[in-house]
TrEMBL record:
This is Aspartate aminotransferase. It holds the Pfam family Aminotran_1_2. SUPFAM superfamilies: PLP-dependent transferases (SSF53383). One of its GO terms (cellular component) is cytosol.
Length: 455
């Protein structure tokens, strides 16, 4: 459309005024303006002594180093994500099916979810972790919020404890030694002090149960104990059911507060109920507790960030009221942190969790993933023992889940990287999902060489 002629007419008065202003500007004034443009800016308020350069995240740094490696034989055992037998990301068939169903839904939109998340997702998540017949659910003793995966659930729980947990102690949080490194950062960020309880025995490469129990017995009353529900990260070492019972007994006697981090339900053993046994036992024993639940691993929804947080109160007469009050405060914390959780991953998980046919297919997918990892554990142990690799290797099959603490030293780990292009964390943890029928012989021989040459 042609422009109006009025748009091309300049006002004589404005033109004259502009010219007069330019003419009256002195050379000194113009030099001052130029000086202000080229003069060095004031230094930042965030100098190096205030904001030092942070170290690179070790795991993501390891991934970057792997990507830069041009060797055709390189092996990635650092990634904490499932890979198929061809070392490729695997979209669970049931997730693909749910994705197709959602994509064809004519009512699909991108509106905000409620602050607490998708109701049918949080309700199904309660039943998954606590059991559909859980008395805690029936008695309305659970408050649940959808979170930004398991990390967001742990953070929400940590923030809640910092704000509202007031036992007559210093509120120390106890982590297993070792634990998922992000636990330390999350609780540090909310200014809760933490300590550790012995967990992994370097001698047996199994659980230091005696050390763990002794530390719990000596912890201050009211201390918070962070527990891995199953498939302990990074060791792959879990207590037996009898050991869990003893842990619960000591924690009741000392009035310790449990916080379960559950990232691998169904992925560890292939059995959803078996992997949730410890959590359900603690609920059965009447504990008040927190639970962080992730769907990254068991649904393969890594980037969709689907998770859930649960507060479970003890079966006191006013339990339902307690749950409601706590839920109201959790909503305020969630609102100030993320406002509303992301919808897509929760929709996929919710559809599968609430549809009996899709749920059954999901269980089969879980058995496929856990089964392949168990097969790789058996194969690796067999190959190392056939090679006569110095040391004992039964811990490879004794451990469970995605990760294995191999017992390799940092020196051996670095030798594996330099000589054989094998990438794992410096503490010797490997992701079993990174092994497959194409690279397991190569890896076993590389380990054998590294161990023999570094003795």
């Amino acid at each position: 459309m042609p422009s109006s002629p009025l748009q091309h007419v300049s006002s004589p008065s404005s033109s004259s005024s502009s010219h007069s202003s330019a003419s009256s500007s002195s050379p000194k004034s113009r030099l001052s303006q130029i000086h202000n443009h080229i003069a060095p800016m004031a230094p930042s308020s965030f100098q190096a002594d205030v904001v030092p350069q942070a170290p690179e995240d070790p795991l993501f740094g390891l991934m970057a180093a792997y990507r830069k490696d041009t060797s055709p034989n390189k092996v990635d055992l650092g990634i904490g994500a499932y890979r198929d037998n061809n070392a490729k990301p695997w979209i669970l068939p049931v997730v693909q099916k749910a994705d197709d169903i959602i994509g064809k839904d004519p009512n699909l939109n991108h509106e905000y979810l409620p602050i607490a998340g998708l109701p049918e997702f949080t309700t199904a998540s309660q039943k998954l972790i606590l059991g559909a017949d859980s008395p805690a659910i029936k008695e309305k003793r659970v408050a649940s919020l959808q979170t930004v995966s398991g990390t967001g659930a742990v953070h929400l729980g940590a923030l809640f404890l910092q704000r509202f947990y007031r036992p007559n102690t210093d509120r120390t949080v106890y982590f297993s030694a070792p634990t998922w490194p992000n636990h330390n950062q999350i609780f540090s960020n909310v200014h809760l002090p933490y300590a550790t309880y012995p967990y992994f025995s370097t001698k047996t490469r199994g659980l230091d149960f005696e050390g763990m129990i002794n530390t719990l017995k000596n912890a201050a009353e009211g201390s918070i104990i962070l527990l891995h529900g199953c498939a302990h990260n990074p060791t792959g070492v879990d207590p037996t059911q009898d050991q869990w019972k003893e842990i619960a007994k000591v924690m009741q006697e000392k009035k310790l507060f449990p916080f379960f981090d559950c990232a691998y339900q169904g992925f560890a053993s292939g059995d959803l109920n078996k992997d949730a046994w410890a959590v359900r036992y603690f609920v059965e024993q009447g504990f008040e507790m927190l639970i962080a639940q992730s769907y990254a691993k068991n649904f393969g929804l890594y980037g969709e960030r689907a998770g859930c947080f649960h507060f479970v109160t003890s079966p006191a007469p006013d339990a339902a009221n307690t749950s409601t009050r706590v839920g109201s405060q959790l909503l305020i914390l969630q609102r100030s942190e993320i406002s509303n959780p992301p919808a897509y991953g929760a929709r996929i998980a919710s559809l599968i969790l609430n549809d009996p046919a899709l749920f059954a297919e999901w269980e089969e997918n879980l058995r496929t993933m856990s089964g392949r990892i168990i097969t790789m554990r058996n194969a690796l142990r067999s190959k190392l023992e056939e090679l006569g690799t110095p040391g004992t290797w039964n811990h490879i099959t004794d451990q469970i889940g995605m990760f294995s603490f191999t017992g390799l030293t940092e020196k051996q780990v670095m030798k594996l990287r330099e000589d054989s292009h094998v990438y794992m964390t410096k503490n010797g943890r490997i992701s079993m999902a990174g092994l497959n029928t194409h690279n397991i012989d190569y890896f076993a021989k590389a380990v054998d060489k590294a161990v023999r040459e570094s003795q």
